[in-house]
Write a structure and sequence with these properties.
Layout (H helix, E strand, L loop, with lengths): L1 H21 L7 H18 L8 H26 L4 H4 L11 H20 L4 H28 L7
Helix pairs in contact: 1-3, 1-6, 2-3, 3-5, 5-6
């Protein structure tokens, strides 16, 4: 749980850093408030870490995925409107519901893991499977963010 929490916090930091340094966009007032909401979710996630696993931890993690995806989408939508980002967005169509499939799948999986844990009372292999699932997802997202960052910064190679 500690590893997942750390990777989740790291991915959110990478997401915000990429948005701030990689794109030109006009932030709204809510863009200065939402990081506090995410911070509260992160603190709650950390607070729920204990020897006795609680499925609430998975629900909080799922809510973090929802908020982070919403923030990212709204920010990128506004970044698309700025002419300085034309080079990046010129080859991409605006997002459709289909593009949110992976995020919906991740959140649904976390909720399903939580429900199964709540119903069965399993405190061993189901939580471990959930942790493995989320670690893989977060590592894939961090790698995707690394590729996006290198693209935005005009960096070449594998570095």
């Amino acid at each position: 749980m500690i590893g997942v929490s750390f990777l989740g916090i790291l991915q959110i930091w990478i997401m915000y850093s990429t948005m701030v340094m990689g794109f030109v966009w006009q932030p709204l007032l809510r863009d200065s408030i939402i990081p506090f909401v995410i911070g509260i979710q992160e603190f709650l996630l950390i607070t729920l870490i204990s020897e006795q696993f609680s499925a609430l931890w998975l629900y909080v993690l799922g809510s973090l995925f929802v908020i982070a995806n919403w923030v990212s989408h709204n920010s990128l939508r506004r970044a698309r409107l700025d002419p300085e980002n034309e080079a990046f967005f010129s080859t991409m169509e605006p997002a459709t519901l289909k593009d949110f499939g992976p995020a919906i799948g991740i959140v649904s999986s976390l909720v399903l893991f939580g429900i199964v844990i709540d119903l069965t009372g399993n405190q061993s292999w189901i939580p471990l499977a959930a942790f493995a699932f989320v670690n893989i997802i977060l590592i894939m997202q961090i790698e995707g963010s690394r590729r996006l960052w290198r693209h935005l910064m005009g960096l070449q190679g594998d570095g």
